[in-house]
Write a structure and sequence with these properties.
Helix content is about 50%, strand content about 20%.
C-alpha cells in the first residue's frame, strides 16, 4: 500500500464534475479527449493518458453480472489506447502470457496481482480464455474475454483489468471522441500543485465541468497513518521481546538455583568465577537463539501457508530481518542470563559441599 501511494503521488486525475467518485467507478458526463494535446503543453507534465473507466461490481449471490476479483466492492476496468500504452511502457508491453486486446472485440488483459486475488476467490474466469459479463450503461450484457496477463511491478497498475478504448466506449455508451478520465503524470511531486493549478485554469477557460484529484493530499494522511501503525507494531514487538527476555531470565535463574551444588563442585575443582559466568551465559544464549530460530521457522511456515491460501506473495522474510531477529536474540540471551550467571558465580563451594 505504501508503494502504491508513493507511485500515485506524482499523478493527477481529471474526471467529470458530476461524479465525485468517477476516478474509481467511471461514469459521469464525458468530455473530449482532444484536451490531451493541450495538457501535454503544460510545463512539468511527463505523460497524459486518456481513459474510459467502468466499474466492475463484485457479484452477490444470484447476480448475473460482475466479476469477483477479491475486492468486497469491486474494481474498475480501464479502457486505453494500446498504441499509446506501448509508447508509455504500459501493461501491454509487460505481458507475461497471451496478447493485447484487439479493438472492439471485448477482450481484456489482467494484472497478475489482480488475477491471483480473483483465482483465490474461486474465479475461474481469471485465466486466459476466461469470460465475465458486465451490464453496460444501456443495460445490455457485455461479455469480456481474458486474452492476456501482465506484470509491470507497479501496484497502482497491476491491480486493474485493461481493455481497448473502443470496447470500453461501447460499454460506457459514449462516442469515439469522448473519455471520462485523464491521468496526468508529473515529472516531480514538488510540481504537482503547479500543474494542477494550470489544469484547473485550462478547463475553467474552456468551460468544461471537470474535477481534478491529486494524490499528494492523500499521501500525507496515509503516511501519518502508516507511521502510527509502524509505531504500534514496534511497541507490540518490543513487549514480546521483553517478555522473551524475562522468560529467559526466569528459566536461567531456576536452572542456577537447581544446579547450586553443581556450581559449588565446579568451583571447588578449580573453575573461576569467569568460567561459571561464561557457562551460564552460553547456555542462556543457546536458549535465546533456539527460540529465535523457532520463531523464524514458525513465521516462515505461517507466511508460506498464507501465500498459498491467498495465491499471492504478500509475506517477505529477508536476510536483514533474519539477522535482526538473531541479533536481538543474542542481546536477550545476554541480558536474561547475566544476573543468573552472577548469582551462580557467587556460590560458595563450602556451603555447596555441606549440602551434598
Amino acid at each position: 500500500m505504501n508503494t502504491m501511494m508513493t507511485e500515485l503521488a506524482g499523478g493527477i486525475g481529471i474526471y467529470p464534475a458530476d461524479n465525485p467518485m468517477a476516478f474509481l467507478t467511471g461514469g459521469g458526463t464525458p468530455f473530449s479527449a482532444s484536451y490531451t494535446s493541450d495538457i501535454e503543453e503544460i510545463d512539468h507534465v511527463e505523460s497524459v493518458t486518456p481513459m474510459v473507466l467502468w466499474f466492475i461490481p463484485t457479484p452477490r449471490e444470484g447476480d448475473q453480472f460482475g466479476a469477483d476479483f477479491g475486492d468486497p466492492m469491486g474494481v474498475t476496468i480501464r479502457g486505453v489506447d494500446f498504441e499509446q500504452d506501448a509508447e508509455l511502457d504500459g501493461p501491454s508491453v509487460h505481458l507475461t502470457e497471451g496478447s493485447a486486446p484487439q479493438p472492439g472485440k471485448n477482450q481484456v488483459i489482467l494484472g497478475n496481482t489482480l488475477a491471483a486475488f480473483a483465482i483465490a476467490e474461486g474465479g475461474e474466469f481469471a485465466d486466459i480464455g476466461g469470460e465475465f459479463t458486465l451490464l453496460s450503461a444501456e443495460n445490455q450484457p457485455v461479455t469480456f474475454t481474458v486474452v492476456g496477463m501482465f506484470e509491470t511491478g507497479s501496484s497502482s497498475i497491476d491491480f486493474y483489468p485493461y481493455t481497448d478504448m473502443e470496447s470500453a466506449r461501447k460499454l460506457v455508451g459514449i462516442t469515439d471522441d469522448k473519455v471520462n478520465f485523464i491521468h496526468v503524470e508529473v515529472d516531480n511531486t514538488e510540481n504537482v500543485e503547479t500543474v494542477n493549478d494550470a489544469l484547473v485554469e485550462l478547463f475553467e477557460r474552456e468551460g468544461v465541468p471537470v474535477q481534478t484529484m491529486i494524490a499528494t493530499e492523500l499521501l500525507g494522511s496515509f503516511n501519518e497513518m502508516m507511521s502510527t501503525m509502524s509505531s504500534f507494531l514496534w511497541i507490540v514487538s518490543l513487549v514480546a521481546a521483553v517478555a522473551g527476555g524475562i522468560s529467559i531470565f526466569i528459566v536461567m535463574l531456576i536452572s542456577v538455583i537447581e544446579r547450586t551444588k553443581e556450581f559449588g563442585i565446579l568451583k571447588a575443582s578449580g573453575w573461576s568465577n569467569n568460567n561459571i559466568i561464561g557457562s551460564v551465559i552460553v547456555q542462556s544464549l543457546a536458549v535465546a537463539l533456539l527460540g529465535a530460530a523457532a520463531g523464524l521457522g514458525f513465521g516462515y511456515i505461517s507466511g508460506y501457508a498464507i501465500d498459498q491460501y491467498m495465491n499471492v506473495s504478500i509475506t517477505l522474510i529477508t536476510w536483514n530481518l533474519v539477522l535482526t531477529i538473531l541479533g536481538f536474540g543474542v542481546m536477550m540471551g545476554v541480558v536474561g542470563g547475566l544476573y543468573p550467571a552472577l548469582r551462580a558465580a557467587r556460590v560458595s563451594p563450602i556451603e555447596s559441599m555441606r549440602a551434598v
